[in-house]
Amino acid sequence: MYIAMNRFRIAPGKEEEFIEIWRNRETHLDEVPGFKSFNLLQGPSHEDHTLFSSHSVWESEEAFINWTKSEAFRKAHANAKPAKDIYLGPPQFEGFKSVL
């Protein structure tokens, strides 16, 4: 199993707009071999940001890497709107391999 996560720092008051971007997004994940599940997680709010994380579970790291090179990945990111007033910097990627 492999877990791929992106951490997002979102401007205060823009949380619902960020959630709507993800709610209305066509991910095409179900088209990709090895994809298991996806969640958008909301973390703590601080004075300057609210933390979110996209969390996808894959059969293997290879399956995730194949997704990043796939036509489904290109389609999922083709209409991504840069909402500069929502995001406080680029997402921070974190990948985890299951060891137990």
Structure notes:
- The structure is a single chain.
- 25% of the residues lie in helices and 35% in strands.
- The mean pLDDT is 92.
- Strand 2 and strand 3 form a beta hairpin.
- It contains 3 helices and 4 strands; from the N terminus they run E-H-E-E-H-H-E.
- A 4-stranded antiparallel β-sheet has the order 2-3-1-4.
- The protein has 100 residues and is α+β, with helices and mostly antiparallel strands.
- One of its GO terms (molecular function) is monooxygenase activity.
Average per-residue pLDDT, rounded, comes to 92
Annotation, overall tally of beta strands: 4
The radius of gyration is 14 Å
Question: Ranges with pLDDT <50 over ≥5 residues?
Answer: none
Q: Helical residue percent? A: 25-40%
Give a summary of the structure in a few sentences.
With 100 residues, the protein is of the alpha+beta class.
Topology of helices and strands:
Layout: E1 2-10, H1 15-23, E2 35-45, E3 50-58, H2 61-68, H3 71-78, E4 92-97
Antiparallel strand pairs: 1-3, 1-4, 2-3
Attribute tags:
4 strands, alpha+beta, 100 residues, globular, 35% strand
